[in-house]
Specification:
By secondary structure, this protein is α/β, with parallel strands linked by helices. Helices cover 31% and strands 30% of the residues. It has two domains: 216 residues, Enolpyruvate transferase domain (UDP-n-acetylglucosamine1-carboxyvinyl-transferase, Chain); 202 residues, Enolpyruvate transferase domain (UDP-n-acetylglucosamine1-carboxyvinyl-transferase, Chain, Alpha-beta prism). β18 and β19 form a beta hairpin. The protein is globular, with a radius of gyration of 21 Å. Bound molecules: shikimate-3-phosphate (S3P). Shikimate-3-phosphate (S3P) binds next to α1 and α6.
Amino acid sequence: MQKKVYKLDKGLRGNVIIPSDKSISHRAVIFASLAKGKSVIKNFSKGQDPLSSLNVCRALGVDIEIGKEVIVSSSGVLQQPSSILNCGNSGTTMRLMAGILAGQNFNSELIGDTSLSKRPMKRIIEPLSLMGAEINSIDNHAPLKVCGQSLNGINYNSKLASAQVKSCVLLAGLFADGKTTFTEPYLSRNHSEILLKHMGADIESHNVSVSIKRSQLNPCEIEIPGDISSAAYFIVAGLIVPNSDIILKNVGLNPTRSGILDVVEKMGGNIEILDKKVVSGEDVGDIRVKYSRLKGCIIEKDIIPRLIDELPVIAVLASQAEGETIIKDAQDLRNKESDRIAAVVNELSKIGVDIKETVDGFIVKGVNQIRGGCEVNSYNDHRLAMSLYVAGLISQKPIAINGFEWVDISFPEFLGLFKNIL
Ligand code: S3P
């Protein structure tokens, strides 16, 4: 699908209720599937990725009803699937499920779409193998054939700050003998730790280390907050479209995810947090965003995992900031749904952004006039498609985004919610 975006003549105005967090939705349905009894999940994501997790859990014998709420009824024991488990585009589904399946008493196979089949799996195969798992891959890529085994706990020092790898190892640890400890260089999102604890797992976190012991999870009732990674498109649009003043409601503000708010503050953006509270163990609040004059900044080191998925739209933000914005230490962006360093640089260059690729990030020199008047590509990557849409809101001539339908992977409500505030 091609989407044409026309420049806005007036500012964005109004309130947006931000839809459900994708990362927490995956975890809620997967962890509930491991708990004996009935779990109730309120505000489950409508994105295709969490649906992939839900369908994989169903294929493992778990009874899941989708209505106003998602109701998961599980015996607490997964069943051998009668077919291959399809993770679609979702790295989170494949990596988290691999950890669980490694410790079952049956064999299974995980597959993904073209993009997921190109993404690196060595990062999970390595620690799982140290735990005694047997996983056959094609040169460390999906399909993954998992031969269920008894596992042993490990003390693992990860080179990557990755919540997917951490969660995979912790979930394997739920089924392993002894204690499993995972240490990462910087703290990545900690939704797994919060929810596993809430569901009664024997888990302890200390700075960048977390340890878990074999545990049976209790069923849960959980309300999922809005996704800060989805809110990011509205935050950037509000900051760069002149005369904007918008309020984003019910946004998850977990500090391990909210790096974009620190960056906006550093750049001089006019942003305010309202009505902060805690829901199901996660920080939640509303965010007011107004059009602002911005200055460039350096984004590096420990903040990177706290805003990893927001970097494409932060590149758009940087194009409207005076001076240089330098993004470093983000090499793993090349391993996402697309090579997001190359993709962002190629597509933003086409529409008039002064952006240069580096090995581990990019450098943007602003302020740029977004010219548009051309076609750009989403690289079949939802975050690219949405970032390009936001750039289109201030483009002199319309831009046409090819492959816009990939937005549905995380945020099918995206266009409808933008239309409400245009
Ligand atoms: C995710 C973790 C991040 C992020 C991805 C979702 C998760 O990946 O990019 O979109 O839900 O755990 P990494 O952990 O590989 O950095």
